[in-house]
Predict the 3D structure of the following.
Amino acid sequence: MDVLYLTEAEVERLLTMEMALEALEAAFRAAAAGKAANHPRRRLRSAEGALLLYMAALDESSGYFGLKIYTAGPTGVRFLVLLYDNRTGELVALLEADFLGRVRTGAASGLATKHLARPDAARVGILGTGHQAPTQLQAIAQVRRLASVRAYSPTPERRRAFADRMSRELDLAVEAVDSAEAAVRDADIVVAITSAREPVLQGAWLAPGAHVNAAGANFARKRELDDAVIARAGRIVVDSREQAKLEAGDLIAPFQSHPERWQDVRELSQLVSGDVPGRTSEEEITLFKSLGVALEDVATAARVVERARRKGVGRTNTMWASGLVP
């Protein structure tokens, strides 16, 4: 069996944000129609402290199912996506998936912004300027005509470098500011993409009608948002409610005393399909709590693999050459 192998460099050459946005919209529409399934992330920690994480999904709209598996330890993080034909069960491709993961995370925020932010939303405030931050802005710029961005992270040199880079890349005024509040005040779209363990975004800072993408914390004990953000949000959307109940610390903590609020949390698939409306008024504050689900990886990987085949990119390895056990 010939299996396509794609390196990080090859995936980066093939994958665009536009592709990822289209892939995710189709996949979440399939999920709403009962033609996709998602298994939440699971974590295994060794006695020495390294982590093994894995999650799986089926996307019948693309014809694939697959698994994302990665390890995190003192020498770094290594991401892989295994893509299978959902009709035959054959392994189709193996992709190195750090860049893929960053792009699909940004695309999820972009898709939520498309369906939740006001049509005239033009000012962005972003908290966090690290590895995952650029694709957040790239995706949002695809779905809204942006006028300005204010960026904050604790290290002045890093936030200035981020602002310079993104200003050039997006041909947009990106300003490094000195506080989280300065980034968020009066912003139409707010992004939290940090590694914080305690809230960095306060609900009191949010302007009426703001949309928030919270994409940095996916551990039950980590939070980027204070209780006031959750209390003020009229519409809360997640990529997977099942996964949110396991690892969305931003919702788990404030919902402990109000578990009935989970009933009002909607899924991105419901927005994309039109089963539920986005915002209900110009003044409503909306929130997308992104966990990062395997369906996003599988759908995006499928587009990459199909483009790689058309362009003749990657190399094939023969596996199970001695035949499969019947």
User: Anything to note?
Assistant: The chain has a mean pLDDT of 96. Residues 98-116 form the longest helix (19 residues). The longest strand covers residues 36-45.
